[in-house]
Automatic annotation (TrEMBL):
This is TetR family transcriptional regulator. Residues 13-73 form the HTH tetR-type domain. It comes from Dyella acidisoli. Keywords: DNA-binding. Residues 36-55 bind DNA.
Length: 206
């Protein structure tokens, strides 16, 4: 049986989780501009100093929330490339993971908050994007691994993965964010995923 964390570590983890959950509620309810670290601390029932100990700025906290939501939905090993499995099957699974994120109400509402904040401050938007990109996005990791294995012909995995992302988000993200359209139903998700993957592999597969 693994050793439990020391009591102080468990308390630290609980406080961090409470801060993230409180921040999600505050950002969704009040928007980016109105939300303050004071309000987050009060909702989380911790001191403002504790909030800053975990997250040095509101921008860092917001980026961490988006990453936290993605990891909670996708899991740590969701984008591992498997040399013994068909590329199409793997990509369809990756797109299914993506749809779970894009259909998550909390993620969509926070994405709206981020876009609104970015419109008011392009510099802040660039900072958010930079913080979100500190770790390479999972689909890019998969494309890079498949290319290294000789299964995809691309010298620019980032560009290739962004192309596939754009095919998905054009149907399952931007209409929902900008036009308040409902999430795609299961049949439409399947149609979008299969056509996007087939187009991608038709161009990049070896």
């Amino acid at each position: 049986m693994p050793r439990p964390f020391p009591t102080s570590q468990r308390l630290t983890d609980r406080k961090r989780t409470a801060i993230i959950e409180a921040a999600i509620d505050e950002f969704r309810a009040a928007g980016y501009e109105t939300t303050s670290m004071d309000r987050i601390a009060a909702r989380a029932e911790v001191s403002k100093r504790t909030v800053y100990n975990h997250f040095p700025s509101k921008e860092i906290l917001f980026a961490e929330i988006l990453r936290h939501l993605w990891e909670a939905i996708a899991g740590n090993d969701a984008f591992a490339y498997h040399a013994d499995r068909p590329l199409r099957d793997q990509l369809l699974e990756l797109i299914a993971q993506k749809f779970r994120l894009l259909n998550d109400e909390a993620f969509v509402s926070l994405a709206r908050v981020a876009i609104a904040a970015g419109i008011h401050s392009p510099e802040r938007a660039l900072d958010m994007v930079a913080r979100m990109s500190e770790r390479e996005e999972g689909l890019t990791v998969w494309v890079r691994a498949a290319a290294a294995a000789g299964k995809l012909k691309t010298k620019d995995p980032v560009f290739a993965s962004h192309q596939l992302e754009a095919l998905i988000k054009g149907f399952a993200f931007w209409p929902q964010i900008t036009l308040a359209q409902p999430p795609l139903d299961a049949a439409t998700q399947k149609k979008v995923a299969e056509s996007a993957v087939d187009m991608f592999l038709g161009h990049y597969a070896c």
